[in-house]
Structure formats: structure tokens, C-alpha cells
């Protein structure tokens, strides 16, 4: 492949993706927060789905003046395009008593299959006063249709926090109970 053809192939591959930069993330999360505020929803708790949802939840927490943030560790993607059969909650799992009768905003970076969001939504359902989901991106095949979405896309997404390889590769990062 010549350099010119290689460049064209690289450009085409890049064009087939959503490229979220840190500055664009800042704009996206502010607009997402404004959508939540305009809807009149005032969450008591923001429940982030780690890891990508940590960035979204922290930014939404500041924008919506919510200091009570919780983390739900869910593993679903084993690698690019490689998923487990079903998402799995990893310890420590939040105590439902802490969520009881609260208005909860579940935050994640993307609703792809929606299986992770469904797991977390169902975990909260029946225990909380209200549970709603906020994501930067939602894909058409998502099982969960989020109440708050910055952008809908069917393309692969390059997030600024995961587009670069890790500085250090560590094996066996799934935590045992």
C-alpha cells in the first residue's frame, strides 16, 4: 500500500468513528447537564458506571451541583468488539439502602447494547424514588432508551480517555469478592 493509499484508508477509518476530544467532552457534558436541568429532574445521587461513566458522573455532579456520587463497577467489554455474554457487577456493589427513596441519575459514557445500563437500572428499580439515565452517546440497538442523551450514533466511538493504550499493561484486574 502506498503512503497515499495508506493515508486514505486511515482517514476513511477515522471518519467511520465518533472522535470525542476532551474539549468536546466538556461541551457535551455541559449540554447534557442542561438537558437534565431543563427537564426539571433534580437527582439526589449520581450513580456512575465505571470506568467510562466516572468522567461523565463527575462532570454532571459539578454541573448539577450534586455532591453525592456513587460508583457501580460493571464489566462487559473484554476488548474492542469483544464482550462477555452478560454484564457482571463487580464488588463493591452499592448498598440499596443508600439509594432507598432517592432520585438517581445513572451516568455512563455510552449506551451501546444497553445491557450494562439495564443491569444497573434494574438494580435500582423498586428501591429508589426515580431512576433515569444520562449518557454522552446512545446507539440505536440499545435496550435502554436513555432519558438524557447528548448524541445518537451507530458508529464506533473514540473516547479521549480510552483511545490511547494504557501506560502500563496489568493482568488480572477483575477484583474478587
UniProtKB/TrEMBL annotation:
Alphabetical keyword list: Glycosyltransferase, Transferase
Pfam families reported for this sequence: Pribosyltran
InterPro entries listed in its UniProt record: PRTase-like, PRTase_dom
Domain Phosphoribosyltransferase: start-end pairs: 23-164
Signal sequence coordinates: none
Molecular function, one GO term: glycosyltransferase activity
CDD domains in the record: PRTases_typeI
Keyword Methyltransferase set for record: no
PANTHER family: HYPOXANTHINE PHOSPHORIBOSYLTRANSFERASE, HYPOXANTHINE-GUANINE PHOSPHORIBOSYLTRANSFERASE
Identification of the protein by name: Putative purine phosphoribosyltransferase
Amino acid at each position: 500500500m502506498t503512503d497515499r493509499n495508506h493515508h486514505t484508508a486511515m482517514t476513511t477509518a477515522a471518519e467511520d468513528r465518533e472522535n470525542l476530544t476532551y474539549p468536546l467532552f466538556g461541551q457535551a457534558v455541559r449540554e447534557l447537564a442542561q438537558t437534565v436541568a431543563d427537564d426539571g429532574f433534580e437527582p439526589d445521587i449520581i450513580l456512575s458506571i465505571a470506568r467510562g461513566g466516572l468522567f461523565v458522573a463527575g462532570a454532571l455532579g459539578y454541573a448539577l451541583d450534586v455532591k453525592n456520587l456513587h460508583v457501580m463497577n460493571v464489566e462487559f467489554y473484554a476488548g474492542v468488539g469483544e464482550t462477555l455474554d452478560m454484564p457482571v457487577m463487580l464488588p463493591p456493589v452499592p448498598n440499596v439502602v443508600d439509594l432507598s427513596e432517592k432520585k438517581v441519575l445513572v451516568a455512563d459514557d455510552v449506551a451501546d447494547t444497553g445491557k450494562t445500563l439495564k443491569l444497573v437500572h434494574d438494580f435500582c428499580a423498586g428501591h429508589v424514588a426515580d431512576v433515569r439515565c444520562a449518557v454522552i452517546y446512545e446507539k440505536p440497538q440499545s435496550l435502554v432508551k436513555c432519558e438524557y442523551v447528548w448524541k445518537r450514533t451507530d458508529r464506533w466511538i473514540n473516547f479521549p480517555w480510552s483511545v490511547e493504550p494504557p501506560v502500563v499493561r496489568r493482568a488480572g484486574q477483575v477484583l474478587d469478592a
